Amino acid sequence: MTDPSDTRDTGPRPYSPLWTFLTGVIVTGFAALFVAEVRLGVGELVALARTSLFWVLVVLVVLGELRPIVVSSSRLAGGTATSTLFTFAVLLYHGLSVAILIHALALVVSGLLHRRSWHRTAFNVSQVTLASTAAAVVLGAFGHHPHPSSPWVPEGAEIIAVTLAALAYFVVRGVLVCAAVALHERRSVLRVLRATIGHQSLVYAALLGLAPLVVVVMSRSPALVPLFVAPLATMYFTASLSVRRDHQAMHDGLTSLPNRKLLILRTEEALAEARTGERVGLLLLDLDRFKEVNDTLGHPVGDRLLQIVAHRLTHSVRPGDVVARLGGDEFAVLLPKVRDAAAAREVAARLRAALTEPVRLEGMVFDLDASVGIALYPDHAPDFELLLQRSDVAMYFAKEGRTGVEVYVAERDRNSPERLNLLGDLRRAIGGSELQLHYQPKVCLSTGAVEGVEALLRWWHPGRGPVSPVDFIPLAEQSYLMRQITQHVIDAALEQAARWWHSGLKVPVSINVSARDLLDSALPDLLEAGLDRLRLPPRAIQLEVTERVLMTDQAYAADSVHALVELGIPLALDDFGTGYSSLVRLQRLPVCEVKIDGSFVQRLGKSVDDERIVRSIVDLVRSLGLRSVAEGVETEEVAGLLREMGCDAAQGWRFAEPMPAAEVTEWLRARPLAAVSAGRCESAEFTAL
Ligand code: C2E
Ligand code: MG
Ligand code: MG
Q1: pLDDT at residue 680, as a whole number
Q2: Secondary structure (H, E, C), 12-72
Q3: Is CATH 3.20.20.450 the classification given to domain 438-458+473-669?
């Protein structure tokens, strides 16, 4: 079994429970070691050192210490040194003193080679000494007192004594190591034992069970003892192969941090372990502006940066806390035991402080920052999924308010459990095949030529079937997922636009962005990088933002909006008429197109009031030098009315429904395309700026 300070070699805090325990074990262990060696005597030792068997064993035990059999990717289970086979054989054959002398020697050598701290090596020597002593006591109880001068070779009938001695050895080592691990990681000993014992007992049974055979060979022909290396090597390679597979399934390939799967496991363990009055904390951490780095400097730089972040985060938490990577630039930190929200806030502040240290990479300096959302069990959520969702809600508030860290507050969260479930499913769907874009053509009302297509998101939920964007977009907009969705939509829409433009189909693709996306300073860079990478002109795309954006005053001042205009990417105002925005407000945003909401358009011909509204919007938009587009045109009658009003373009089932990319490509090839003029938005830019 491994020792408790696997991850870091800093010693325990003086007088902490772990320190007291380790000190107790070390003092007792060294006392036992001292007594045993005194009993052996110098004369015996010199005589022993003259035999070749002694040195063969020393070499085998040292090698065994250097190559532990790791039986589980869990850090707790750790490795079982193969040296146990030989030291236990020596214990049976030559007695306790020689066995622990050789083992202590091997532990010191491996400690030096692995540069372990002294307390770690001393603890290892002590636990091995105490376990061997327990085994020797059992043998003594059966009347066996092996000694170099009177070696013991067990007979078949003595199997019970050997088995009980092996059991004593295993139990003492197991209890000592698990207790230290439990104290180190602040978990219950029983839980650590339960998590470790299964794997370990198998390996120990194999190693200790082979020992009597090694004894027989030692007594007959010491030169044959190294042959046992072959089965050990096989065990070693088979075990490490399965552990590597196990590790891969539970860890992130880039940073080697635990992945979502392992995080779920660890969180569930922590929740089960938490007693009344105890809290478990889940922190969700998202890097600010990471996508910019990735897109402008390329993935290799982004990857290195993520590795550095992972390293910094793992070194800013206490042993037993779990830092996991959920994907992209999103990390989570599990605090299996946390006093209260203030303590969790402290951890979050420490994590952020560790990140803000500038990173030097490829001759550049990066300033990293992150927003952290905190949710606590049992205060905010009863299980992992809800903890994650609530920390996500909190993180969204941290981002929005630029506060850096926020703790979940139920009163600010407008999500019902059902919506939260959907949000969880959506989070899993991003990046997979469940989310796809469909495209709906926009047609010029006077010529019938196609002016562009609008990308509309479609979600095929495995259980619920198709879920309308009307149901999931507003939900996502309230959480931090929206940013990921927009990134996904932009990537997919740009790639489709590139396929069309590079095959001669020069059709502009409209992308819907939420108000918050529009205000995100990363958006222009993201688009510019994407257009560059795919060799597309800015007019190959258009952004649609709903009229509601006009209701927040930030929109007019936002640098991102001006950066987009400067890039030459046209903006359209979507769902016009539903936001009750005033003429003044409309004039202040640099849009070049206004899309009249379908709810008015569909009632054309049925309601005189709606006809008046649409007519006045069309007139108003024209008088501002902008273009009007009618949404949701379902019949030729409505199309005719709009044409007569002077509306420029229309979209709706009368012309075409939203279609998958392949289908819309066919559709486009069969129709005339309107020429895309570079300056189609100029007038709007000038009115607005
Ligand atoms: P929108 O941008 O106003 O999109 C127009 C909606 O009208 C689409 O609904 C479209 O399928 C529907 N529509 C088109 N022609 C007709 C018609 O003739 N009659 C009727 N009754 N409806 C028609 P959809 O696809 O359900 O999208 C709803 C809204 O969800 C969109 O409204 C947009 O605000 C949002 N959305 C869709 N995809 C995205 C996206 O990728 N990102 C963001 N941020 N929002 C999106
Ligand atoms: Mg739209
Ligand atoms: Mg609309």
Answers
A1: 42
A2: CCCCCHHHHHHHHHHHHHHHHHHHHHHHHCHHHHHHHHCCHHHHHHHHHHHHHHHCEEECC
A3: yes
